[in-house]
Amino acid sequence: MTPPRGTRPSREVDRPARAGPILTVLILGAVVANINLAIANVALPSIGAALDTSQAELNLIAVGFTLGLASSVLYLGALADRYGRKPAMMLGAALSVPTSLLAAWAPNATVLIVARVTGGLAAGLLYPITLSLITALFRGGPRTRAIALWSGIGGGCSALGPLIGGLLLGQFWWGSVFLPSVPIALLVVVLAGMWLPRHAGETSEPVDHLGGVLSVVSIGPLVLAISLVPNYGFNGTVLGLFAVALVGLVLFVVRERRAPSPLFDLKVLRARTFTIALIGGTITWGGLLGATFIGQQYTQNVLSYSPLSAALITLPAAVFVAAAARPAGRMIASRGSRAPLALGLAVTAAGFLGMALLFGTTSSAVVVGIVYGVLGLGIGLAGPPSSSSLMGSVPVARAGMGSASNDLQRDFGGALFQAVMGTLLAVEYTRYFTKAFAGLPSQQAQQLSQQAVATISQSFTGAEQVAKQFPQAQAQQLVAAAKQAFVDGKTAAILFAVIASLIGLVVVLLLYPNKQDEEAAYASVAGQQPPARHGANLEAGAEADPRAAEPEAPP
Questions:
Q1: Using one digit for the tens of pLDDT, what is the confidence trace for 371-401?
Q2: What is the distance between the alpha carbons of residues 339 and 386, in angstroms, rounded to a whole number?
Q3: I need a labelling partner for 331 at 20 to 30 A (CA). Which of 33, 325, 447, 462 fits?
C-alpha cells in the first residue's frame, strides 16, 4: 500500500536527513577524543628527559586527560542536554585545538599537566555528546548500526594512538604526539556547523548544578587516587583523595535522591539493561586498558622492542575492534544485546588468558600479534551492545547521562584495572627478587648493597641500571632474572583480568534480559520522555526540514 501523501515510510523516520554526513562528523568527534586519550603514554620517557620531570609529574601527565574527561562528563553532558548538543560539541572540538597546541609546546611539566587536564575537559564536551547525538537522531536498526560504527572506529583509533605517537617520536620532538588531533578537530567544527541540526531532543528541565559540582568532587579525586596507588601505595595523599571522593559520593547520592531534576537519575540503576551493560563495559574496557598498560611494558622490557615496534605489535587489536563492529550490530538486531556482550566477554577472557600463559621471556611477534587480535575482537563485539544498552535505557532528553555513563565505564574502569593490575605486577615482581636474594650465598649477597637490592626489587628499569655496574656475564644474569620476575608479575596481573571477564560473562548470561524483554524495557523508556525543548523533534530526532523527506543512509 502506498503511504499517505506527505508521510514517510516508517523505516525512514529512524534516521535524520543527511544521515551519512551526520554520522561521519560524530565518528570524527569520537576519533579526536580517542586519539588524545592514550597518545601521551608512549612519549612519557621522552617528556621526562626533556622537561626534567619528577615521577609524580609524569603520573599527572599520564592521567591528566582521563582526569579532566572522567570528572566532567556527567555535568557537561547535562548542560548539553539542556542548552544544546550541537554548540556543546562544536565548543568541545574547538577547545581541543588550543589545549593540544599548548601541550605540544609546553615549556615545563606544570604547563603540560594543565594542558592535559583542560584537554580532558574539552573532550568531556566533545566525546560523550557524539553518542548523545546518535541516540537523539537515530532510531531502531539505524541507531544500532550507527553505535556499532561509532564504537568500532572510535575504539580502533584509541588503540592506534600509541602507534601514531611512536611514528611521530621517530621523526620529531616529544610534543608532536599532541598534534594529530588538531586538523581533525578543526574539521569537526566546520562539518558540525554545516550538517548537525540545531536541536536534537534536548530537555527543558533545569540543570542540577549542585549535583554537577558534587559529581566533579566525587569522580575527580577517585580517579586520581586510583591512578596513584601503583606508584605510591596508600600514602597520606592517596588516602586523603579517597576520603574526599567518598564524602563527595555520599553527598552526591543524597542530592540526587532529593533533587527535583537530578543530574543522574538513580532509578535507572534498577534497569538491568543499564546496570549489567555498565558492568560488562567496565570490565571489558578496563581490562583492555590495564592489559595494554602492562603489555607495552612487557614488549619493551622483556622482549626488548623499541617504542615504535611495541606500538606496531598492538595494531591487530585496532583492526579487529573496528572489524567486529558491523557483526556486533547485526547480532544486536537479530538476537539482542545479551549474545554479543556475552560473546565479547568470552573472547576477551580468551585473549587475556593468552597474554597470561603465552607471553613469556622469549615469545614470538606472531604469538603476541595474534593475542592482541583476539583481544581486539572481544572488545569489538562487546563495545557496541554495551553502548547501545546504556543509551536505550535512558530517555533521549537525558542522553547526556547515558553517554557520560558510557564514557565513565572506560575511564573509571581503565583507572581501576590499571591500578589493580599494576599493583599485582609490582607485588609479584618484588616477591620474586625477595626469594632470589634470600637464597643467595653470603659471598654473593655481600656484593650487593642494600640500596642496590632495593633498586633491583623496585622495578625492571632499576634492575637494568644496577646491572650496568657488573661484568657482562653477571649483568646478563641479573637482566634475565628481572625479565622472569616481570613475566611472573605480568601473569598474576593478567589473570585478574581473566577472572573479572569470566565474572562479567556469568553476570551477563544470568541477569541480562532476553531480546523480547530488552526491547520492552527500551519501549517503556521511550514512552516516559521528559519535557523537550521547543523545536526539538523527539520522534525523528531531526529538525522540521523539508529535506528530511529524503534521508541519506548511514555509511
A1: 999 999 998 898 888 888 888 888 877 777 7
A2: 11
A3: 33
**CA-wise closest residue to 500 among 289, 222, 326:** 289
Number of Cβ within 10 Å of residue 231's Cβ equals 16
With both helix axes pointing from N to C terminus, report the angle between 325-335 and 140-169 in degrees, rounded to the nearest 10.
Answer: 160
159 within 8 A of 318, measured Cβ to Cβ: yes
More confident residue, 539 or 40: 40
Query: Structural domain boundaries of the chain?
Result: 10-207+261-429+487-544, 208-260
Nearest 5 degrees, angle CA 338-CA 340-CA 344?
115
Beta bridge partners of 532: 203
Secondary structure of residue 532 in the 3-state scheme: strand
Nearest CA to 538 out of 549, 546, 530, 547 is that of 530
The single-letter DSSP state of residue 203 is B
Alpha helices in 336-398 (DSSP H): 338-358, 365-392
HSE on the CB side for 322, CA within 13 Å? 13
pLDDT at residue number 1: 45
* 384, 148 Cβ separation under 8 angstroms: yes
Q: Cα separations (Å) of 369 from 80, 317, 365, 437, 441?
A: 41, 8, 6, 35, 41
Alpha helices in 105-208 (DSSP H): 109-137, 140-169, 181-195
3-state SS class at 359: coil
Query: Do residues 255 and 208 make contact, with C-beta atoms less than 8 angstroms apart?
Result: yes
First to last CA, the chain: 29
Q: Is the torsion defined by CA of 321, 540, 74, 402 positive or negative?
A: negative
How is residue 203 written as a grid cell? 530537555
Q: For the domain 10-207+261-429+487-544, what is the CATH code?
A: 1.20.1250.20
Entry field: residues in the chain: 555
Confidence (pLDDT) at 127:
84
- Max Cα distance, the chain (Å): 96
Rounded Cα distance between 43 and 48, Å, is: 9
Rounded Cα–Cα distance for residues 553 and 555 (Å)? 6
